[in-house]
Amino acid sequence: MANTKFDEMFSHDLYRDNVIDIANEDISQTLHQPKLLGDGYILLPTLAALALAEPWLEQSEWTKPLGEWGDRGARAILVGGPVVLLTQNLTGSSRPNESPSGSHWEPFQDNNGVSGHAFVGAVPFLTAGRMSRRPWAKALWYGASTLPALSRVNDEGHYFSQAFLGWYLAWLATAAVDNSQQQRQLKLIPTWNEAGPGLMLERNF
Questions:
Q1: Is the residue at 129 inside a domain?
Q2: Does residue 27 have a pLDDT over 80?
Q3: Strand runs (DSSP E) across the chain, as ranges?
Q4: CA angle, residues 12, 17, 23, in degrees to nearest 5
Q5: pLDDT confidence of residue 188
Q6: 3-class SS at 146?
Q7: Residue 186: its pLDDT value, please?
Q8: Which of 75, 115, 122, 134 fits 145 for a cystine, CB–CB 3.0-4.6 Å?
Q9: Buried b (16+ CB within 10 A) or exposed e, 60-92
């Protein structure tokens, strides 16, 4: 997609002509909002806080899923984040209307080959989807995970291929975390007692 005419065709001939030009400005503004989920200023500290609080949250059936969601989401960010940063530079493609080369891959010439917003914004939804047991809930969460990526195309912040790559790396990262969830042998747990704060290493056999 990045190295053909697909990105340009999708952005202008398909999306602009059939979505934006037909819809009104309110719809365009609505489609912009999910970008905020990918900013990370609120989401990343939230996931980190919930991950650290998981040992206390799992003591209640009501809060246990929240702690697990934070732990899984934080691990997915740590797993996929470095890959996103590397791939952004390795592909070397540019944003729409930023360079004559467009979305074509030119290694290390630019750093917009993958949408970071699409990656970060998809992780919490994909994590929730993988934790859900009901098919309809999975479908809702998975569908919602595409909204931050769509917002980047809507805003012309990224080409379709770049937004898709961000979402797909989130898919792979959350899948890796999900696959390892039942196989975890080591777990670092924050503790607090009369001597003060500490860390406990738990090993499961």
A1: yes
A2: no
A3: 186-193, 196-203
A4: 130
A5: 66
A6: coil
A7: 63
A8: 122
A9: eeeeeeebbbbbbbbbbbebbbeebeebbeebb
**CA distance readout (Å), 186 to 95, 102, 160:** 41, 45, 39
CA distance 51 to 67: 6
Predicted local distance difference test score (pLDDT) of residue 19:
58
* DSSP codes joined into one string, 54-104: HHHHTTSTTTHHHHHHHHHHHHHHHHHHHHHHHHHHHH----TTT-TTTTS
CB-CB neighbours of 205 under 10 Å? 3
Roughly how many angstroms between the first and final C-alpha of the chain, as a whole number?
46
| Cα 123 to Cα 74: distance, rounded to the nearest angstrom | 9
Residues 69-83: pLDDT tens digits? 999 999 999 999 999
Contact criterion met (CB below 8 Å) for 119 and 84: yes
Place of tokens 């503004």: 29
Q: Is 1 part of a structural domain of the chain?
A: no
For residue 46, the one-letter residue type is T
Of 135 and 200, the one with more pLDDT: 135
Structural domain total, the chain:
1
